[in-house]
Amino acid sequence: MPASSGTEDLLEELLNVELELQDVQDEIKRLLDKQEKLYEKQSELKAVLESYQGSEKSEKDNAAPHAENWSGSFEWDNEADDIRFNIFGIPTYRANQREIINAIMSGRDVLVIMAAGGGKSLCYQLPAVLHHGIALVISPLLSLIQDQVMGLTALGIPASMLTSTTSKENEKFIYKALEKGEGNLKILYVTPEKISKSKRFVSKLEKCHHAGRLSLISIDEAHCCSQWGHDFRPDYKNLGILKKQFPNVPVIALTATATKKVQLDLMEMLNIPKCIKFVSTVNRPNLFYMVREKSSVGKAVIDDIADFIQSSYANNESGIVYCFSRKECEQVAKELRERGVSADHYHADMDVNAREKVHMRWSNNKLQVIVGTVAFGMGINKPDVRFVIHHSLGKSMETYYQESGRAGRDGLPSECLLYFRPADVPRQSSMVFYENSGLQNLYDMVRYCQSKRECRRSAFFKHFAEPPQDCNGMCDNCAFLCELKEIDASDHTRALVTLLQEIQEMDQRATMLQLVDKFKVKNKEVGFELKKDELEQLVIQLILHRVLKEEFSHTAYATNAYVTIGPLAKHVLHGKKNIMLEVPSGQKSITKSSKRSRYTGLEVKLDNLRKELSSIHGGIFPHSILSTQQLSILCSQKPESTEQLEKIIGKLKTQKYGERILEVIGKHESDEEQGDDLADEEKVTTVNRNAKRSRKKKVVVIDESSEDEKL
Ligand SMILES: Nc1ncnc2c1ncn2[C@@H]1O[C@H](COP(=O)(O)OP(=O)(O)OP(=O)(O)O)[C@@H](O)[C@H]1O
């Protein structure tokens, strides 16, 4: 056998062994992931078992049966209903609220995971009023505390806060109430720092407890306890001492989001292993999620954002625009103002007073849009935020869920729009690579952005390990009919990897943008040329598939992200793995996103509803695209019959929406050609199965009894 063919055979065998090794490593990773999940499940089951055993023991100890059926009857039912209705003005409980209140009133520790706007506050405020004594509430932000105390005082509930802004006189009143039970105080708010730093306060609390007057301890935004959470606050770590010092006082920990890992972590940190968990769905059915391709031209992005706001929210409806950096915040706010949008910036570098002023103007509807960094976060209590726009991608699915979730806390339809461009990925990755699972979390977010088929909502369900629910056409991938074509980019990938090898052999490195730039020549040699944005998309896809990987290097001023060869590059080089790139098909100028700028998500939803209704009701539905407000009414009252439909339209017309309907009908008639355009596009083969599925759905029954209220 000639030497060269012997070498080739050996190389071939070596490659096969390496491929097999890679497969084994993948399998090990898969098994390790599975092992981690099983460990989580194991400790969760142990905790539940212990809690059952604990409650069985206390049942025996108390010689009275202890109900685990939290929706059953309890001795405080009537009084609780009275407080709910007559003090809080709330007609009925929402999901889990009553059960949580009953568990707390039964003296159990409770962990509540309930989406933003779900009604967590009532779960501890109502038992606080119902119980004898004072409830202690730990909340992370001054502004949040101020809002809550103001709200409770307005309801006539004696509430106070002990913070750096509390006057001496007020402090005296609070200490007397704790120590001697004097005065009238039901709910006391403090920041976590008070527990960890003020011995005086803790000693007063001990006296209060000793006298049997500490009714419950509520820990709001409890995810701040966990380093795995997205808002870790060191002072939250010390809150575990509360359960140690006051073991018989029920603790209620509340948060809007917590993965299984975070839940276990915070149960441990707070010393509440036997707590009863109430986990509500993460689904926010009123939020429309969408992602738009972000132009590389900064001004074009601002034009698009301004157009989105001015065309859909012309009546000064509130919104937030999140930006990556402080500088970007200021720039975007300025450029939006130049385009006639009432906007101002908010970031951590501003003086506290200036920040507070911007927040107040926005809260009072004197300012339409806050352009903020993530510093504009917890403590935003505004219920009627109609849109949250991300100027660039967030660092994880969890932070995106939280930030976008600030829209629509009042339950009315609202929009969450994210602008994505691959070049934003290295900016984020160089910030998060040192965090626990930082890169993994970011890449999950990138997958969400890049996906052109998968329901956006289902990505959240997967992330939070929740069974899937119907999106109801409330995301771009479910609502839009999308034309896509798949390009075989295997040759481009091989050429890219070879180029990177050459760069590395010369002891050099390349950032993503440098790599794409250097690839220009090779790009021409490979069968057909990929466009610059397609190449950027390809590089990101290859990083997600581990054909390439990111590496980081620090300079005195910054951390740079470079692209290098990843563990699976060999598979591609040796033709064992094909790389397919999904791009919008058809003419580049008439892409899906250009349609999107004419039809906002909600309008598309209504348009779908209109089409559905016209086929059912012989086209009597007005041929119009309505305002967000009208849409919200229609979407919440989806009519089932022609009579119901006419009734709703009649009501809309007799109210202030009537004029706007006529105005929009006029506008739409002049847009008729554009509508035809869309119809043509829909005739082309589509790949969006979800959209088809959502169209098949029938309209649901109208709740006639509450129609007036909704209108
Ligand atoms: N059962 C109910 N019926 C009607 N409205 C309710 C009910 N419970 C709470 N609400 C109202 O819902 C709104 C949101 O409640 P709350 O502020 O407690 O939400 P949250 O879960 O704390 O949200 P976030 O995490 O965003 O702070 C409030 O205006 C509250 O009065």
From TrEMBL:
One GO BP annotation of this record: DNA replication
InterPro entries associated with the record: DEAD/DEAH_box_helicase_dom, DNA_helicase_ATP-dep_RecQ, Helicase_ATP-bd, Helicase_C-like, HRDC-like_sf, HRDC_dom, HRDC_dom_sf, P-loop_NTPase
Coiled coil: 7-41
Region (Disordered): 50-73, 668-711
Keywords from the named record: ATP-binding, Coiled coil, DNA-binding, Helicase, Hydrolase, Isomerase, Metal-binding, Nucleotide-binding, Nucleus
Cofactor(s) for this UniProt protein: Mn(2+); Mg(2+)
Name of the protein: ATP-dependent DNA helicase
Superkingdom of this protein's organism: Eukaryota
